[in-house]
Design a protein that fits this description.
Structural class: mainly alpha
Radius of gyration: 16 Å
Largest sheet: none
Number of helices: 4
Strand content: under 5%
Number of strands: 0
Shape: elongated
Distance between the termini: 16 Å
Order of helices and strands: HHHH
Mean pLDDT: 97
């Protein structure tokens, strides 16, 4: 059984995280913030919070994505993964503009993870 769509979503996830990391690095250089300092202007702190929150979410999302692919199916997992990816991009773009604008993207990506977990449970129960 090949989970090609899920693999593409995993690559998209890593690419999104890489993009966020580059944004954080650019903000660090732009504002002259030397590591390990994590404090600075709101623009700097926002890009770092987006990066950190996304990493925190990935720790739950990626196992849920792959378990859903194994137990429910590649297409179902990829659909949930695509929702997560769109949510994370919206989360970042909203947060970069104003931290209060992060809610839609956060809700989408968090909901996608919950759906993947539920999909995994359904798949396990069907077997």
């Amino acid at each position: 059984m090949h989970n090609t769509l899920t693999a593409w979503i995993t690559l998209a996830t890593i690419t999104i995280y890489f993009w966020m990391g580059m944004n954080a690095a650019r903000a660090r250089v732009k504002h002259g913030i030397k590591a390990p300092v994590m404090d600075g202007p709101i623009e700097f702190m926002s890009v770092h919070r987006v990066l950190a929150n996304t990493l925190e979410q990935m720790a739950v999302f990626l196992p849920a994505l792959w378990m859903c692919a194994v137990f429910l199916g590649d297409a179902w997992a990829a659909a949930g993964g695509a929702l997560w990816c769109v949510g994370r991009v919206l989360y970042a773009l909203g947060y970069y503009q104003d931290p209060s604008r992060r809610t839609l993207g956060f809700t989408m990506s968090f909901s996608a993870t919950i759906l993947l977990m539920l999909g995994t449970a359904v798949g396990i129960l069907m077997h």
